[in-house]
Specification:
By secondary structure, the protein is α/β, with parallel strands linked by helices. It contains 13 helices and 8 strands. The protein has 2 domains: about 160 residues, NAD(P)-binding Rossmann-like Domain (Rossmann fold); about 120 residues, N-(1-d-carboxylethyl)-l-norvaline Dehydrogenase, domain 2 (Orthogonal Bundle). The chain is globular. It binds 1,4-dihydronicotinamide adenine dinucleotide (NAI) and ribulose-5-phosphate. The site of ribulose-5-phosphate has 13 residues, from α8, α11 and α13. It catalyses: 6-phospho-D-gluconate + NAD(+) = D-ribulose 5-phosphate + CO2 + NADH.
């Protein structure tokens, strides 16, 4: 199958690599010429504008957007839409707000799939977990691509109609915030507490058979190994926060209490004063672990 990819950053390049490795053809575009060159080196056909990108795609266009959520998605769609029709498919694999995705699905001439993507750049080898919303026929049509980008056939599912993929991913991220918060609190008490512990060892033994083992806990172990048991220069500052904010807003609208997710989000906002909390320093480092997000460091 031929896939057009727009947005060749940390995540988009993985979609390119995994699609090529599965034998698909990829046409690649990004505003950043270096990113296009990297995709071309990997075997994709480079495009130097959206028009050039569309010229290089066949008549039934299959397009995957992996640009930052928000304005970049709208700007890209605005350029694509005059040349799309009902036989074409657009996938938004980014962390878009689900209500934006519903709006875009209604106005896009092509079938529109909102695809929550989990696994982060660190998950490249394994493949991603994909939560897809939108028309069944478009999901079925793109199954070979989803098989390639996900961990395999079990790594993707259609959640329901437009918006449902990004809705599920939004709540996934709320859970992610709370898990990071609880690991952070446990390690903070271990760090401040009454024994002089090597936290890499603690994380390692917990990862071997303990009830609370997980990938995030493996990333805690990696963080202590790479930064030291006191997390070295990692600052008490957790960036991000949009998907967690939407999760909390939705919980208020649905009157479903989410005290843990709300607390984890508040800790992020609180961290912006930088008063040195260990739990928040660990969350800061974990965002690098899974997402390759920049790590704010102490001066
Ligand atoms: N990094 C992560 O752990 C995860 C990120 N996501 C989501 O995936 C999307 C992409 O994330 P990353 O790859 O991490 O970001 P990134 O910043 O590494 O890459 C974004 C790419 O999009 C390009 N771009 C921006 N505006 C563009 C436009 N108008 N036209 C063409 N290209 C444009 C940039 O030049 C850049 O190469 C975001 O929505 C993000 O929230 C989803 C799951 C995990
Ligand atoms: O979706 C992700 C992981 O699942 C991205 O890494 C996202 O950026 C995480 O959210 P935040 O930036 O608010 O920490």
């Amino acid at each position: 199958m031929q896939l057009g990819l727009i947005g060749l950053g940390r995540m988009g390049q993985i979609v390119v690599d995994r699609s090529l490795a599965a034998g698909h053809d990829v046409v690649a575009f990004d505003l950043d010429e270096d990113a296009v060159a990297t995709a071309a080196d990997a075997g994709a056909v480079p495009a130097d504008s959206i028009d050039d990108f569309l010229d290089r795609l066949g008549s039934d266009k299959r397009i995957w957007l992996m640009v930052p959520a928000g304005e970049a998605v709208d700007v890209t769609l605005e350029e694509l839409e005059p040349r799309l029709d009902g036989d074409d498919i657009v996938v938004d694999g980014g962390n878009s707000n689900f209500e934006d995705s519903v709006r875009r699905a209604e106005s896009c001439p092509a079938a529109y799939l909102d695809c929550g993507t989990s696994g982060g750049p660190a998950g490249a080898e394994l493949g991603f977990s994909l939560m897809v919303g939108g028309p069944q026929w478009a999901y079925d049509e793109l199954e070979p691509i989803f098989d390639a980008v996900a961990t395999g056939p079990d790594g993707h599912e259609r959640m329901g109609p437009a918006g449902s993929g990004h809705y599920v991913k939004m709540i996934h991220n709320g859970v992610e915030y709370a898990l990071m918060q609880t690991y952070g609190e446990g390690f903070e008490l271990l760090h401040e507490g009454r024994y002089d512990l090597d936290l890499e060892n603690v994380a390692s033994v917990w990862n071997n058979g303990a009830v609370i083992r997980s990938w995030l806990l493996e990333l805690c172990e990696e963080a202590f190994r790479e930064e030291g048991t006191d997390l070295g220069t990692v600052a008490d500052r957790i960036e991000g926060g949009s998907t967690g904010t939407w999760t909390v807003q939705e919980s208020l609208e649905q009157e479903v209490p989410l005290p843990l997710i709300y607390t984890a989000l508040s800790e992020r906002f609180g961290s912006r004063a930088d008063d040195g909390r260990f739990s928040r320093r660990l969350a800061n480092r974990l965002r690098y672990g899974f997402g390759r997000h920049d790590v704010p460091r102490r001066e």
